[in-house]
Amino acid sequence: MITREMIITDIVTKHPETIHVFRSFGLECNECQIADYEELEHGAGVHNVDVGKLLKELNQAVKS
User: Fold this and answer.
1) 28 with 22: CB under 8 angstroms?
2) pTM given for the model
3) What is the pLDDT of residues 11-45, one digit of tens each?
4) Three-class SS string for the chain?
């Protein structure tokens, strides 16, 4: 399960199937150097993305 406290690069590395979800929210996290240190909740907030919606879609991608 992906949580808001997880580091973005850890999510993408462990679950490459989430890359399309990040992109659908306008986030190019797999190409961002800050993603190595940034928690999902902070990254979403910086880009004005609803972290709840993002989490829901990320976790759906991981389950399918």
Assistant:
1) yes
2) 0.91
3) 999 999 999 999 999 998 777 888 899 999 999 99
4) CCCCCCEHHHHHHHCHHHHHHHHHCCCCHHHCHHHHCCEHHHHHHHCCCCHHHHHHHHHHHHHC
